[in-house]
């Protein structure tokens, strides 16, 4: 029964670094974007969604990022504050950069896509010197997302944050969060992803995301082979997600745990990964076993995919535990 240990006596449980954006989710379902006329605005961006989920579950959280100096940037910052997330390291851009937008298309519960507007976005302008070492030093976990590696100076800011994490005994969770349109080519992407994964303790991604990381050496790895590569570095848990077929977690001692999924009344599929990551991390930080934490992650995902938003739909602990006790969990 594997558990994972975290430093005690830190001010923050989890600090996330990366993009803070706006989701514009289609109000009209089961139709293509061309025919969608209205959208509802939410705070979005994978690390933002995950940290909101963690804060709702009661953890002490903070964010390291950069927002546009406009109405959208102010909306994002005040939403984080309302959710009890520390924003003292959320920097306001002064170059005229804009807020990234993600329009979502809900063609059917199984057929969802995202149309992203990410030219000159503020989140990718976070400078290394803007990352406050003391925030990371005072956290048990640093959460990073792959999209922040897509360009400079944000990429260097992530790697400096990883150095601070190593220096101050902070565990790193790397959510791969691969968004192809943010990147120039797969070689650049895979090189930086692999460098960040070497410095991470918990790595979570879909099979497709790991395939991207392996593609430059023409590797075709099984889930187990994929996971084993990272145990030569710092990894203590590697999770490979398979959508509605659940996920598999691996540990360095050769243990593997396959999770089931909770039955869900699916409205849209996006948000599954972010809610899964937040509830998984919450439970593992409470001393739960991997199996237990995967159940929490799966339950949170089932809740969020049945609702309209990602961030705003993140469950409280009561809602999550209710789902775990009354929901139907299908072992796969
Ligand atoms: N259709 C579904 N029904 C129930 N649970 C789901 C469904 N799709 C995804 N999930 C849950 O969400 C988790 C993450 O989903 P996945 O699609 O693999 O991630 P991502 O959103 O990052 O692509 C899965 O491991 C599973 O627990
Ligand atoms: O990450 C984004 O910028 C968009 C998200 O806010 C979004 O809604 C989404 O795609 C969630 O991703 P997932 O949890 O990996 O499905």
Structure description:
It is built from 10 helices and 15 strands. It has 332 residues and is an alpha/beta fold. The chain has a single domain, classed as Ribokinase (UDP-N-acetylmuramoyl-L-alanine:D-glutamate ligase), CATH 3.40.1190. A hairpin with a 5-residue loop joins strand 12 and strand 13. The longest helix is centred in the C-terminal third of the chain and has 15 residues. The two termini are 20 Å apart. Bound molecules: adenosine-5'-diphosphate (ADP) and the ligand O=C(O)C[C@@H](O)[C@H](O)C(=O)COP(=O)(O)O. The site of adenosine-5'-diphosphate has 19 residues, from strand 14, helix 8 and helix 9. Catalyzes the phosphorylation of 5-dehydro-2-deoxy-D-gluconate (2-deoxy-5-keto-D-gluconate or DKG) to 6-phospho-5-dehydro-2-deoxy-D-gluconate (DKGP). This is 5-dehydro-2-deoxygluconokinase. GO terms for molecular function: 5-dehydro-2-deoxygluconokinase activity; ATP binding.
Can you summarize this structure?
By secondary structure, this protein is of the alpha/beta class. The protein has a single domain (12-20, 51-97, 123-330), classed as Ribokinase (UDP-N-acetylmuramoyl-L-alanine:D-glutamate ligase), CATH 3.40.1190. It is built from ten helices and 15 strands.
